[in-house]
């Protein structure tokens, strides 16, 4: 992926976190990856609040990978907050979801996500999806 | 549409019933009125004729008496004396006496009675003195005026001479001993008599008074007739004939009323009366058609009245019936709205009668239906969201297991024994199976929950795509038997049905060579599609079970099957009111035929 751009992963399932990390490794994606466990934590990271009050520990990400299903504050809720915050709304967000439900995907697109990846059951396929996504992101004009 | 037709016919039936009752009523009333009035009209017409006949009889009698009185006063003793003297005298004295007599007769002649001429006839029947000199010497020996006049004062039958009607009235001239010495004959212009018979007051356009007399076997008319003033064309009627019947009765001294044809042959009602002491008869008659014209008018009036009444009845009944059926019509519309799926329909209960009760029952029924519908919708929704949530919640740990097992295998690459690798392989297969099951469950929960738009679908083209996606192996030949219809439907669901049925036929085919055939037939309101194969077939005892969820006839290791496909197909087909079934005797090689119906219009 693009040099220097950091990626924020909002994901509560450690296995899914591992999956992303493994997929990155497999695809030789070396961007620094920050992981938060839910929407509130993600918001705190983005706004340098609480545990992330030191801006050095919470650099502005070039991309957010967002799981829709998380405890406390879910992905859709976070999405809405981020997209209505003038400081944050420019950060591209890619939704990671287990769901192929039209309504979730539709809501995500209405809230201006850059794309979505349905998490396949096998890691192999997930890694493939990340590869495709990486390719797309590298070629596109995303910041 | 059918119910609408029946409701309209109910209105028609009621209107027709009311009109029929009205018709019967007015017909009975009309008939009664008609008969009573007709009888009354006829009776009054007859009474009128009789009254007129009586009046004419009296008037004629008086007129004749006037003539006779005139004759009697002319037969004064001076006339008798002068005639006696004349009869006794010889020439030349006789001429003098004659001239004096004629001169006096001329003086005395009663001009006011329109006395035209006066004659004295001797017993030989010879005119011996006349105011009209032309008449003298004329033999009258055969004339009834002379023969009858010798005995009694006598009115002879009127005669027509040069277009005028005359009447001879004779009176015997008797000497002191009472012996007749001569006969006095006064000739009157009969117009006074004719004024009586010619008076047509109260006789309408065809009525008239006829004066007649019987002469032997014939009836003669004595006064001009209304329809033949000159008597020119009237042959005397034979007394035996039907035509002369009233006059024959009258001349025979009878009075009465009768229906008979008159001299023209026209049917008339005639009242007849005799004129005493003359042998004459008077008949007052009127054409039956005119007398009964009132009856015809009455009939026409009554029929028109009935027509108007029926028309009024229809005009009044039709809107009344409509108003009467209005609440029913409202109910019918409401029923159709409910049938169309609008369960918030209620009808106003405005009456306390049966219709009101029906409306109340209807409202109760719809309320119950709504409750049941809402319950069903709620539990359906709950079930769907349950299936959705469960599938999602099941997928997350499954994904974890899948990933972790893969990574384990990757990380332990080269360190695993053969049987351990096989176990890892089995683990992954089970995970994939579980994933397929959950996907199937999700898809199943979506049917009926997510409504796709209805679009025009060319089934032939759809089948090409489906067969392409099923991707049958080379040894199995899938054919579509044309023609395939084009219809308006949910394309995704129809292709899912075909996908499952064709997919199953291909997947479970034992080989080595196989045929799958897709057909279609028009079954009225629906299309009936079929998917036949020549594979293993399905035993009849399994025909029900295969459509249930998670029921597969194949062991998991044999074929990749979830047991959701046919349940999904059944749910899709039955969700549209269709039917799906399988025909097979379970014999290998004969295969199975799946048939399902699909609405022509959604």
Secondary-structure blueprint of this entry?
The complex is a heterodimer of chains A (143) and B (602).
Chain A: E1 7-10, H1 14-26, E2 33-36, H2 39-47, E3 63-67, H3 75-83, E4 93-97, H4 102-110, E5 115-118, H5 123-139
Parallel strand pairs in A: 1-2, 1-3, 3-4, 4-5
Chain B: H1 2-74, H2 77-88, H3 93-108, E1 115-122, E2 127-130, H4 144-149, E3 154-155, E4 159-161, E5 164-174, E6 180-189, H5 191-197, E7 208-215, E8 218-221, E9 237-238, H6 245-251, E10 256-261, E11 267-275, E12 280-287, H7 288-291, H8 293-339, H9 354-411, H10 418-446, E13 455-458, H11 459-470, E14 476-480, E15 486-489, H12 491-507, E16 514-523, E17 526-533, H13 565-574, E18 580-583, E19 593-599
Parallel strand pairs in B: 14-16
Antiparallel strand pairs in B: 1-2, 1-6, 3-5, 4-5, 5-6, 7-8, 7-12, 8-9, 10-11, 11-12, 13-15, 16-17, 17-19, 18-19
Folded structure, characterized:
The complex is a heterodimer of chains A (143) and B (602). By secondary structure, chain A is an alpha/beta fold. Chain A has a single domain, classed as Rossmann fold (3-Layer(aba) Sandwich), CATH 3.40.50. Helices cover 40% and strands 15% of the residues of chain A. Chain A has helices spanning 14-26, 39-47, 75-83, 102-110, 123-139, and strands at 7-10, 33-36, 63-67, 93-97, 115-118. A 5-stranded parallel beta sheet of chain A has the order 2-1-3-4-5, sandwiched between helices. Chain A starts with 6 loop residues before the first strand and ends with a helix. Chain B has 602 residues and is α+β, with helices and mostly antiparallel strands. Chain B folds into 3 domains: 51-291, 2-Layer Sandwich (Beta-Lactamase), CATH 3.30.450.20; 369-443, no CATH class; 453-599, Histidine kinase-like ATPase, C-terminal domain (Heat Shock Protein 90, 2-Layer Sandwich). Chain B is built from 13 helices and 19 strands. In chain B, helix 1 (2-74) runs antiparallel to helix 5.
């Amino acid at each position: 992926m693009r040099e220097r751009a950091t990626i924020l992963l909002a994901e509560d399932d450690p296995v899914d976190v591992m999956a992303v990390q493994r997929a990155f490794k497999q695809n030789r994606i070396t961007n620094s990856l920050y992981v938060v466990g839910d929407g509130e934590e993600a918001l705190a990271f983005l706004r340098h609040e609480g545990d992330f009050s030191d801006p050095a520990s919470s650099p502005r990400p070039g991309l957010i990978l967002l799981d829709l299903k998380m405890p406390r504050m879910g992905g859709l809720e976070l999405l809405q907050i981020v997209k209505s915050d003038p400081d944050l709304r420019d950060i591209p967000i890619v939704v990671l979801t287990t769901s192929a439900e039209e309504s979730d995907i539709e809501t995500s697109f209405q809230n201006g996500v850059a794309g979505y990846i349905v998490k396949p059951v096998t890691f192999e396929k997930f890694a493939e999806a990340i590869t495709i996504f990486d390719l797309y992101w590298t070629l596109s004009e995303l910041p | 549409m059918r119910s609408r037709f029946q409701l309209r016919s109910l209105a028609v039936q009621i209107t027709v019933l009311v009109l029929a009752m009205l018709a019967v009523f007015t017909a009975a009333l009309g008939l009664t009125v008609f008969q009573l009035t007709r009888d009354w009209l006829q009776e009054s017409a007859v009474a009128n004729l009789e009254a007129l006949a009586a009046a004419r009889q009296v008037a004629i009698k008086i007129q004749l008496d006037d003539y006779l009185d005139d004759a009697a006063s002319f037969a004064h003793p001076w006339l008798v004396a002068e005639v006696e003297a004349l009869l006794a005298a010889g020439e030349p004295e006789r001429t003098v006496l004659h001239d004096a007599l004629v001169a006096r007769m001329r003086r005395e002649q009663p001009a006011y009675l329109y006395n035209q001429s006066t004659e004295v006839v001797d017993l030989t029947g010879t005119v011996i003195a006349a105011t009209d000199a032309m008449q003298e010497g004329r033999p009258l020996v055969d004339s009834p005026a002379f023969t009858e006049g010798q005995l009694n004062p006598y009115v002879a039958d009127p005669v027509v001479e040069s277009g005028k009607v005359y009447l001879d009235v004779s009176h015997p001239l008797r000497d002191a001993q009472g012996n007749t010495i001569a006969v006095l004959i006064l000739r009157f212009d009969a117009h006074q008599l004719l004024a009586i018979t010619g008076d047509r007051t109260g006789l309408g356009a065809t009525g008239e008074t006829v004066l007649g007399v019987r002469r032997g076997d014939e009836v003669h008319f004595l006064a001009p007739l209304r329809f033949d003033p000159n008597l020119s064309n009237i042959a005397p009627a034979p007394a035996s004939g039907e035509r002369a019947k009233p006059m024959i009765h009258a001349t025979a001294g009878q009075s009465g009323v009768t229906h008979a044809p008159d001299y023209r042959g026209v049917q008339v009602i005639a009242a007849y009366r005799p004129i005493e002491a003359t042998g004459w008869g008077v008949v007052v008659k009127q054409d039956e058609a005119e007398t009964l014209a009132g009856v015809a008018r009455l009939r026409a009036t009554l029929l028109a009245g009935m027509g108007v009444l029926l028309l009024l009845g229809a005009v009044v009944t039709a809107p009344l019936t409509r108003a009467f059926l209005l609440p029913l019509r409202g109910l019918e519309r409401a029923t159709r709205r409910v049938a169309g799926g609008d369960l918030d329909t209620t009808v106003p209960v405005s009456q306390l009668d049966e219709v009101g009760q029906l409306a109340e029952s209807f409202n109760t029924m719809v309320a119950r239906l709504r409750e049941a519908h809402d319950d069903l919708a709620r539990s359906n929704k709950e079930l769907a969201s349950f299936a959705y949530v469960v599938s999602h919640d099941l997928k997350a740990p499954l994904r974890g297991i899948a990933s972790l097992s893969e990574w384990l295998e990757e990380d332990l690459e080269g360190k695993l024994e053969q049987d351990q690798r096989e176990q890892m392989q089995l683990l992954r297969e089970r995970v994939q199976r579980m994933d397929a099951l959950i996907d199937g469950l999700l898809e199943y929960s979506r049917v009926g929950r997510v409504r796709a738009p209805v679009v025009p679908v060319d089934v032939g083209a759809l089948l090409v795509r489906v067969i392409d996606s099923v991707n049958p192996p080379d040894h199995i030949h899938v054919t579509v038997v044309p023609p395939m219809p084009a219809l308006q439907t949910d394309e995704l669901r129809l292709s899912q049905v075909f996908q499952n049925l064709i997919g199953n036929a291909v997947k479970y085919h034992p080989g080595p060579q196989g045929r799958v055939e897709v057909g279609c037939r028009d079954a009225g309101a629906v299309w009936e599609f079929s998917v036949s194969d020549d594979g293993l077939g399905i035993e009849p005892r399994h025909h029900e079970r295969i459509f249930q969820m998670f029921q597969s006839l194949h062991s998991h290791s044999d074929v990749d099957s979830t047991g959701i496909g046919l349940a999904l197909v059944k749910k899709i087909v039955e969700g549209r009111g269709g039917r799906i079934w399988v025909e097979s005797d379970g014999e290998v090689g004969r295969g199975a035929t799946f048939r399902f119906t699909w609405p022509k219009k959604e």
